């Protein structure tokens, strides 16, 4: 491919992060307006209410495993290994991140969240394996 297609899933993940920041802000503002927490309590975030804590944790999670996703996408592009296989895996990873985030900020039920996380983990691992195979063959 070696166009810019591999960057669309990356940008879709960035959109997820911005959406989660917006959700965090909305949930925090709602709790401040309701008087359940003072604005100053967020200065040190010691007692984050559960309603916003799940979003905060979900956001933190977007800067863990996805860092490897960003690196892999860039390396795939540079190595010209960004073909349909890599692109499919990248979109699968991002779709699974959206599903994981949706579960995380709603029910936060580990029965559903954990398998979705594992599937994304495996999709990303497959991207790295694909890159290694591509480089070994080149």
TrEMBL record:
Keyword hit for Transmembrane helix: yes
One GO CC term, this protein: membrane
Keywords: Membrane, Transmembrane, Transmembrane helix
Domain of life: Bacteria
Coiled coil: none
TM helices/strands, residue ranges: 6-26, 84-103, 115-137
Compartments, as annotated in UniProt: Membrane
Name recorded for this polypeptide: Membrane protein
Keyword Aminoacyl-tRNA synthetase: no
Pfam family for this entry, one: MAPEG
């Amino acid at each position: 491919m070696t166009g810019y297609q591999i960057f669309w899933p990356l940008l879709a993940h960035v959109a997820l992060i911005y959406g989660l920041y917006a959700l965090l802000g909305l949930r925090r503002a709602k709790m401040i307006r309701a008087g359940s927490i003072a604005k100053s309590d967020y200065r040190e975030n010691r007692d984050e209410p559960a309603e916003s804590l799940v979003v905060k944790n979900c956001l933190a999670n977007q800067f863990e495993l996805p860092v490897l996703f960003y690196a892999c996408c860039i390396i795939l592009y540079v190595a010209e290994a960004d073909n349909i296989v890599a692109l499919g895996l990248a979109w699968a990873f991002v779709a699974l991140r959206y599903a994981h985030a949706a579960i995380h900020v709603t029910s936060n039920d580990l029965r559903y969240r954990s398998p979705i996380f594992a599937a994304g983990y495996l999709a990303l691992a497959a991207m790295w394996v694909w890159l290694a195979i591509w480089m070994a063959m080149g």
